[in-house]
């Protein structure tokens, strides 16, 4: 058993108090900044059950860490679990220093726990060594160009903690060697403690709280709090949720790795958005009138985001980047600080014509008449929401016509609204709240007047905006995406008559990560072709580049996101690229011809289903002719 002299105990007490005081001197200011930030508008703790489950899954079980990066994720998980296991060991270690240990080598439980901790110590030592090798030798691009000396030093301290603990099983705690071992472990621990709030390892303390308190919906944009709230413009606009998440960043670079803008050479780095918020808070604090855009945050970067949600989905510590980015856009647009010719044109199109493409509503009327779509009068089962692309874009019109033919084949009654405006999705994501509100309220009024009960749309952006974002101004009827409708009715559709070609399905961001719908479109594709998966698919799907209003923002800097994704899809060797979003379809139209002299066919899943119906009709007509 360890026996320290009185002088050693006094020295230990002084060092322990000094370490705790240094930790507090660095951690308390962080807490003060978080609590000093304004309350998040519309924030609710409900539903608690979902928060508890996320905490168990993402924090205690480390599910997201492991799932998205299995090998380094498992290493991180072992370090976390090791820290949890060592909580009791550390308390006992401190108590032993004062002569009052509550665990000893003779008790049954104590022996079991000491050996359990030893297993974790081995796992942590191996894991931290592997992670250090990855960070300082392999050095993946997304971890950053600059190697953090502090990270290396902390990794060394953790390794020393594990080794000095394991050594006690051979050396013991008595004698000079045992005392030296105890002091080595103690000093490593007490040096590590005050470094936590000064480095990215602050996430060890904050991230469990951040995961529990994050906004309940994916990419949830908070409402503005009154007429004086313009978004994230200055320090006074920072909320406690944003501040907490900014300080929780572990700088792992997962968001950077999966960001399509960063991957294709833009300056946007989602990690720097969070760190920029932290840098601003450290320098100016919340409540300051200094603009957020400037020294720590880039306006250009904020407007390069496609709002694909990869950053938010990948983050293992609960940081929600998209509300930060959209908040910065709001602050710039709503205060007139963002000047962009394409943006101005987009907003004017939405204000004057009610659609993002700038066409007269007469063009939509002409198309409805030509396609033979019935006007919704309240007697039909579904209101078919056309959207800007379905109403005005040539490709979008082909898709919605195909889907309408499928509905007719199934005997499902539908109608389109006589007057329909853009949902406001591009205005919402670009940060123009006034235009978005005007469009949302106008559409909600038209839907209510038409007595719509159920809606279906070919556009995931429309589905998301109607089902979620409109809730600030009223409740819309339930709406589903056409992939979900088709999958539910797939058994009633013909599956023969067309050649079964290989089809690579591109997951739209707003259908996949935003809505969590991955299997329905694949069920449709599998009925008409041989499904091929791209390397980046499902939750890890790469964006087409159209989201966040960028489809209307002109030429990109660096490589086009759509071209990068087209290369990934062509690399599968599939004969057909299957899509389930008119924006994706439009972006790939040119991109596929750019990357291949013999590009695969580009078809929406509704077109696959409609082609099979047409093939059946032709076959039936041929049989009838031969019979007669």
Shape: elongated
pLDDT averaged residue by residue:
92
What structural category characterises the helix and strand content?
mainly alpha
Query: What portion of the residues fall into strands of 2 or more residues?
Result: under 5%
Query: What's the Cα radius of gyration?
Result: 29 Å
The DSSP helix count reads 27
Report helical residue fraction. Answer: 55-70%
The termini sit apart by 103 Å
Provide structural commentary.
By secondary structure, this protein is mainly α. Helices cover 58% and strands 5% of the residues. A four-stranded parallel β-sheet has the order 2-1-3-4, sandwiched between helices. The chain has a four-stranded parallel β-sheet with strand order 6-5-7-8. Helix 24 (519-528) links the parallel strand 5 and strand 6 (529-532). Helix 6 packs antiparallel against helix 7. The longest helix has 31 residues, at 6-36. 44% of the residues are buried. The mean pLDDT is 92.
List the helices and strands and how they pair.
Elements: H1 6-36, H2 48-60, H3 63-68, H4 70-97, H5 108-138, H6 149-171, H7 175-195, H8 203-213, H9 240-248, H10 254-258, H11 260-263, H12 270-283, H13 299-302, H14 310-314, H15 321-334, H16 341-353, H17 361-371, E1 382-385, H18 387-392, H19 394-410, E2 414-415, H20 425-430, H21 433-450, E3 455-457, H22 460-467, E4 479-481, H23 482-488, E5 501-505, H24 519-528, E6 529-532, H25 561-570, E7 576-579, H26 582-595, E8 601-604, H27 605-627
Parallel strand pairs: 1-2, 1-3, 3-4, 5-6, 5-7, 7-8
